[in-house]
Amino acid sequence: SNVAILRGGKDAINSNKAIFKVLLKAVNSLGIGFSPFFLIQRTEHKLVDYLLKESAYIDLVIPRGGEALIRKVTQDSSIPVIKHYKGVCHIFVDAFADISKALKVCLNAKVQRPSVCNAVETILVHKNVAKKFLPKLKKELDKYNVEIRGDFMTKKILRGIKLAKEIDWFTEYLDLVVSIKVVEDIDKAIEHINFYGSHHTDTIITENVNNARKFVEEVDSACCFVNISTRFSDGYQFGLGAEIGISTDKLHARGPMGLEELTTYKYIVYGDGQIRE
Fold it and tell me: What is the pLDDT of residues 29-67, one digit of tens each?
């Protein structure tokens, strides 16, 4: 039998107990002879350190929380970890982008829920459309009081914005803040994403089929989108049911994870005395 061990922080212990009671009630109503869930009600940190060494009894760890927590779990665990460090998601507005479509997607990806991992944090704009697109984008972002941090070229076009620092390109803001950079071409956009991104979710806005194909093939991220908001990077939106997390690893799960990602293989073979010769 498989069991999920649940352990939350002290700030949510009462909520976790209430949710756990509901889970047990649901299991009992199905007549299952054992509980597939176990809630650890102790909240001290040293207990986590102990659990992370119990590789003889625990097969997998899925940490959910801030980047610092996930890095600590990954470093301390002797058990395989599926991790989701952070969501530094990008949108690249190509030279062949539909401007109205780009405005709609960029705005949704930033302001609908800025505090989630699939919100956009950096918008890259092809130099050929920057002067046309950026003032329109700023006008929309200003309606939601979004702070813009831009590179030198963006700052020339959008007077009064903050100049982006190197750390901004690595940052998951989780807030109404966005970094914007004007790039030479699609190759520079892909290079930027693969260097500064977190391999989570990245989108290209383009009407050029070849550029769309190049982007999704060369960007090294779990989710590569064409003409769609990064906000769709979600297990429920993918039809996976309740989402366990979004993995930025490559093995064994990648991208939004559903229940299937908690399963493995078992080969059962029936014979009648066959031998290998």
Answer: 998 878 888 999 998 888 899 999 999 999 999 998 888
**Residue 105 belongs to what H/E stretch?**
helix 99-111
**89-232: which CATH topology?**
Aldehyde Dehydrogenase; Chain A, domain 2 (3.40.309)
Radius of gyration in angstroms for the set of CA atoms belonging to the chain, rounded to a whole number: 23
Q: Domain segments of the chain: what residues?
A: 4-84, 89-232
Beta carbons within 10 angstroms of residue 177's beta carbon? 16
Own/partner pairs, 267-276, CB within 8 angstroms, 24+ separation: none
Distance CA 27, CA 136 (A): 53
Question: Per-residue pLDDT tens for 226-269?
Answer: 999 999 999 999 999 888 889 988 888 899 998 888 888 889 99
Q: β-strands 201-205, 89-93: how paired? A: parallel
Amino acid at 185: D
Are the C-beta atoms of 230 and 219 separated by less than 8 Å? no
Residue pLDDT, tens place only, 171-211: 999 999 999 999 999 999 999 999 999 999 999 999 999 99
In this structure, are residues 205 and 91 in contact, taking their beta carbons and an 8 Å threshold?
A: yes
Strand partners, 14: none
Residue 191 CB burial class (10 angstroms; 0-12, 13-18, ≥19): middle
